[in-house]
Amino acid sequence: MNSLNTEAFTLFGQHILWSDMVGNILGLAGLALGWRRSLWTWPVQFASGLILFAAFYGHLTGSAGKQAVVMAVAGYGFWQWNRGRGEGGDGHIAPRFATWRERGAMVAAAAVGTVAVALLFTAYPKLSWDPWPDAYIFVGTIVAMYAQAKGMVEFWFAWLLVDLVGVPLNFANGYAFSGFVYVIYGALVLWGMRDWWLRSRRGPQPALEGAPA
Hints:
7 helices; Nicotinamide mononucleotide transporter family protein
């Protein structure tokens, strides 16, 4: 798997690795499929996580661990969407807004998780190149994928918040292709957010606990 970390080409003075390019292209495709509410979003996200896990394993253990969690959540998301794919009336899941209780739980989990993971990365410097931003992206990615698995419109907001840190962090640490992909992620997130928002307003709303958005 060492070939994954060899250089594919140079772009604007940045060395683009095969792992960085292939893994993130798959991640981008997974996000686009998520916008379309396709069940294939989860196998593609799993494949992206697998490639990046192989690329990071051995020299960036924290990043490799992140990808292992991403693969686990992708499996959970596939199971959830497969169960609920008829709810939208078109063979796909029905997007919905989270309840206030769900939002509070996700914000709390993101905050506590970020602090806990950052402290772990700080205690073991070999796990991460930049503990606090890396922990924020790690936990934010998991929260976003969980919300996506539940069909929540808020998952797009979570991805947008991850992007705001992910773009400069990847450029700063030499993962230029990841940085470029995160910029494209931002555009896809805005379009996907609009689509899911409108879809959540069209059909009958499920009885949710707490006040809707």
